[in-house]
Known about the structure:
Elements: H1 2-13, E1 26-31, H2 36-49, E2 54-60, H3 62-71, E3 76-79, H4 85-93, E4 98-112, E5 120-121, H5 123-130, E6 148-152, H6 157-165, E7 177-179, H7 182-191, E8 195-200, E9 209-210, E10 212-213, H8 220-224, E11 231-239, H9 244-254, H10 259-265
Parallel strand pairs: 1-2, 1-3, 5-10, 6-7, 6-8
Antiparallel strand pairs: 3-11, 4-8, 4-9, 4-11
Helix pairs in contact: 2-10, 3-4, 9-10
Amino acid sequence: MKMKGTAIVACLAAGVFAANMAWAGNIVIKGSTTVLPIAQKTAEAYMKQNPDIKISISGGGSGEGIKALVDGSTDIADSSRFIKQKEVDLAVKNGIYPVPFAVAYDCIVPVVHPTNTVVNITLAQLKDVYTGKIKNWKEIGGPDRPVVVISRDTSSGTYEVWHEKALKKERVFAGALLQASNGAVCQAVAKNPNAIGYIGLGYVNKDVKALTVDRVEGSKTTTLNGTFPISRPLFMFTPGWPKGDVLNFINFVLNPTKGQKHVEESGYVPLF
Length: 272
């Protein structure tokens, strides 16, 4: 995971681009519901220190955030995945040159209802559950009950990473119930004893039970050392090299004793 951060820093050092700026004193942030708690906590702390700054934040998914970056309607796009080449191409056509800032690390944790007796699942079993091959919990040592599969919509960066790392790019089966956010997945699993879903580490709470994957628990340590198999960096993208208030806010988020403290408070893994 640390190597990814180094590559991103090298990318940032490669060039400085002109930014599309909001009016001074106002910052607009849109995108990932995974990064949303980080954005909210850091923005709250930043505005407390800088009362003349107003930061507006909305979710909607990584794809929506990057779309807003491309069309010039946001200053910062939160994303739980890296920007796609086709999105870069669209941005460049609009005179926008996206710059990535890794702001935290995360792992995507499979979760079930607290009453479910299953405690561990293998990557191979996860794939079979989400592609519809495993249909009953008893097939993986659980109760004799049907599996209710809960997934994310395709605009979600969490879905993109799950699709790549857990499903090995196979399709989620047609009977899966799709949810629009980490919070919605968490609520759906908490209400259904037969359900399985997946959420960012920062969303795990007492209402759901996190499963280990191949006997590895999703945690700060296993995310950083790469032993948890579904880990990833989280990003904030700007439409060109940031300036003014946006640059000051990004610097605040990346500061080890300021924004990164709030990353950890949000339940995610700080960079340092």
